Amino acid sequence: MADPIKVLLVDDHQVVRRGLRTFLEVQDDIEVVGEAVDGAGGVARAEELRPDVVLMDVKMPGMDGIDALRKLRELANPARVLIVTSFTERRTVVPALRAGAAGYVYKDVDPDALAGAIRSVHAGHVLLQPEVAEVLLSQEEANSGQGRGTSLTEREREVLGLIADGRSNREIARALVLSEKTVKTHVSNILMKLDLADRTQAALWAVRHGVTG
């Protein structure tokens, strides 16, 4: 059996953390390895515990979730961050995704959907709902990145198209009959050539420039 997905909870409300822990602890493939009450604590715990996925609130005292995301990126922490926000805080989703979040869920999310979201981002997917993708794309300049795509090889464009479709590295490897290591190399080259920070930005670039799987 595969190792459980290690999850860190970062939220300043004890009731929220307790509720998340209570549900997640009954999942056979998910293990809550720790908690933090603010962004600074979340960064410190993420460095200490090296979780696979961090459930991160946005609005917290001191260092908020977006600043914590930026700090984790600076530290090259490999944890995938899933933002947990309220419906009324939707405007914070775009900055969070730009800061490196792998996706987001609302605090009233169905428990089974939450578990599914954790599994999805852990597998390498980007959780990007259509209305948020539209906002992100509208904020880009019409010619953003234009010309850089010509440096991509045909194989890299295939990989990029599959990233835009939300495929994980494993799924891309299976679709293109490649090893996961080779796919990781292609992804790194794509990000470097397009001057992008992560898979979320790559997916958005692909959508804007018509690169599909």
* Mean pLDDT level: 85
Any idea what the radius of gyration is? 17 Å
Strand proportion, as a percent range, falls in 5-15%
Terminus-to-terminus distance: 31 Å
Strand order of the largest sheet: 2-1-3-4-5
| Shape, per Cα inertia axes | globular
The low-pLDDT segments are: none
| Number of continuous helical runs | 10
Question: Got a strand count?
Answer: 5
**Series of secondary-structure elements, N-terminal to C-terminal:** EHEHEHEHEHHHHHH
What structural class is derived from the secondary structure elements?
alpha/beta
Major sheet description: 5 strands, parallel
What is the subunit organization of this protein?
single chain
Q: Helical residue percent?
A: 40-55%
Descriptive notes:
The protein has helices spanning 14-24, 39-49, 65-74, 93-99, 111-122, 130-139, 154-164, 169-176, 180-194, 199-208; strands at 5-10, 30-36, 53-57, 80-85, 103-106. By secondary structure, it is an alpha/beta fold. A 5-stranded parallel β-sheet has the order 2-1-3-4-5, sandwiched between helices. The longest helix is centred in the C-terminal third of the chain and has 15 residues, at 180-194. 38% of the residues are buried. Strand 3, helix 3 (65-74) and strand 4 form a beta-alpha-beta unit.
In short:
Helix content is 49%, strand content 13%.
Task: Tag the structure with descriptive keywords.
213 residues; alpha/beta; five-stranded parallel sheet; globular
